[in-house]
Amino acid sequence: MASGKLQGVRVAILVGDGFEELELLDPRSTLDHAGAAMFVIAPSKTSVTGWNLGREEKQVPVDIPLKSAKAQDFHSLLLPGGRTSATRLSTNNDTVEFVRDFIHAGKPVAAIGEGVGILLQAGVLRGRRVTLGLLSEEDLKNAGAIYTNENLVRDGNLITARKLDDVSAFSREMTHLLADLRQHAPNMRKTA
């Protein structure tokens, strides 16, 4: 049974084919259990395929095609990793604009593993404390980010985590961030 502490909170999950299955499914399950409404956003109009330990595994239905998605309709953004997904999304102009809209609006954004690369490509990491998955520390520093050698980093409304092993802590931290913001921000109590 859902706890309801995130009732009315709308979370966009931005992925493409080749996402890391557990990096989507664990946070989605955790946030869903807390009462958040979860929406899979992807360039595809029907479904995306996830990977589990390097093997194609799970088809996930797309709720909203990326071309139709607007950051203003959501309270938060989740960027799961997966090298193929992150690479494809990083080179997509619609992705870059979607991510920038969340960051510029000050909305919570959480990225794990290669999902941090999408933030890097969107150019939104200057002055932000982040950790990295498979990115190089040099790439983060060149983008103006402040690299922190930790498994999980929370910098204001931005959460980054390194890898699949950190997914449970990542999911919990995202839930805590959204619950804290919901408690103190009246606009998060309403559906966007």
Task: Give structural notes.
The protein is an alpha/beta fold. It has a single domain, classed as Rossmann fold, CATH 3.40.50. It has six helices and twelve strands. The protein has a seven-stranded mixed sheet, sandwiched between helices.
Key structural traits:
192 residues, alpha/beta, Rossmann fold, three-stranded mixed beta sheet, 6 helices
Write the layout of secondary structure elements.
Layout: E1 10-14, E2 19-20, H1 21-33, E3 37-42, E4 47-52, E5 55-61, E6 64-65, E7 76-79, H2 83-90, H3 93-104, E8 109-112, H4 115-122, E9 129-130, H5 137-142, E10 146-147, E11 152-155, E12 158-161, H6 167-184
Parallel strand pairs: 1-3, 1-7, 2-4, 3-6, 7-8, 8-12, 9-10
Antiparallel strand pairs: 4-5, 11-12
Structural class of the secondary structure composition?
A: alpha/beta
Q: List the secondary-structure elements in sequence, H or E.
A: EEHEEEEEHHEHEHEEEH
Q: Write down the CATH topology.
A: Rossmann fold
Order of strands across the widest beta sheet?
6-3-1-7-8-12-11
Q: Level of helix content?
A: 25-40%
Share of β-strand residues: 25-35%
The tally of structural domains comes to: 1
Q: State the end-to-end CA separation.
A: 24 Å
Mean pLDDT: 89
Number of helices: 6
As residue ranges, the low-confidence spans are: none
Biggest beta sheet attributes: 7 strands, mixed
Oligomeric composition of the shown chains = single chain
Relevant CATH superfamily: Class I glutamine amidotransferase (GATase) domain
- What does the overall shape look like? globular
**Strands, total number:** 12
Q: What is the CATH top level name?
A: Alpha Beta
Q: Roughly how many Å is the radius of gyration?
A: 15 Å
Based on the coordinates given, report the CATH architecture. 3-Layer(aba) Sandwich
